[in-house]
Sequence to fold (500 residues):
Amino acid sequence: MSIRTPTPSIFRPRKVVGQDVLTQNRTLFDDINRRNVLRGAISLGALSLLTGCDVSEHDSVQKVLRTVSAWNDRVQATIFRPHHLARTYSASQVVKPPRFNAYYDIENVKPIDGATWKLELAGRIDNKKPWTAEQIYQLPEQEIIIKHICVEGWDYIGQWSGPNLRDFLQRVGADLTAKYVYFVCNDDYTESIDMATALHPQTILATKYAGDVLADPFGYPLRLRTSTKLGYKNAKWIKAIEVTNDFRETFWSKQGFNWFAGI
Amino acid sequence: MTLPAVKSTHHERRLHPLPVRVMHWINAVAIFIMIGSGWKIYNDDVILGWLHFPDSLVIGKWAQYGLQWHFFGMWIFVLNGLAYLTYGIATGRFRQKLFPVSIRDIMATVSDALHFRLAHDDLTHYNAVQKILYLGVMAIGVLIVISGLALWKPVQFSELAALFGSFQATRVVHFLCMAAIVGFLLVHISLALLVPQSLVAMVTGGPVVVNGPTHPPETRPPETPPPETAVEAEATH
Fold:
């Protein structure tokens, strides 16, 4: 699997850096990544000089920064245009395969057995009967060819299809006036989106990429694709959907990433 | 005829009035936050393959901290910048200090600089190159905010984003604006250190100016004109 950056840019090197050294030293990197090791590391950052460690991590600083981030959530909800469509592209511009991204590497993906997998429903939904993959794959499909924009700065054009989320929520009798739709994933990832985004015409439960059933690394059997959020909001390997009025921190928001993450 | 003393003290102002000084230093902090955190965000997906900003120069050890600082600092930068632009236009400070600026003046200033004849004993008067640099960095400041909005909301502000072409092109514009501001800062800070009274003036307010900018004694008009006229006299000076 190539992880080459798909966007052509004259500023980007043509050859990608070899990933072998990363895979060969995985244990070492995991060890380095351990928080307690890094917490003790000395940073020479301009701000760090004042305090001896990253000032961002101080509780009082985090409180301010996260308060502003929560304020930014509200601003983003206010400027969100529920019927404004993101630009779509032609099939010839689609990057195949899509770019892999998760909080772990592609070789650590745990494939789901579509025969035994079930989608659980919870919260403010009338009909909570679980769905099999077969049932979901029989629903009417919507196809969108949209840009995936990652918070890191890269993007690519992808061709996704599957049931429209608004249609699905209506079909199961969800309370469309609730505030959030919360996703629980097979890899312990969690995500939630605001109801306005859930009801946006370009928000789908994707089952296919470029006309083929999703490959394991990209969320088989079911993932979210919405045109109005950064990449990390698009939960993969979904195993449960809950419609709720309770705000819950999600996998990345707990770590300090912006929750709304609209684009 | 001379104006009554009471009236002249009424119009007595510093070279840099208090609001300008406050906004200048707020902006300095905001720019520091935006560039440092912007470099952290940049490092996650570099535009130039050879350019990674060293960890010692970025703000935020982890990606999320860089992002938090950037989307915190943007409010300070934008609100303070709007206040500054409004103030500069409304009080006539920009018109008085930065206009007019002509090609001939620029050539003359460059020539003076090359002959080491550049005068900087009068802090109240900006030479043509200073005028161009200050006007240019303000324009870049506006462009970096517009390109930043297009990066933040390429779908919600799709009309704005379309001006730049693609998302990646917007990133390049945003990046080049940063590079231009860094270039400006290198010159700006170097000159402030070379002419320390300019740095002091941005803290204390600098020399007292009566009815706007001071004139050298030999060119001072015999009668002090009313403030509006004084402004125009200087502007065409």
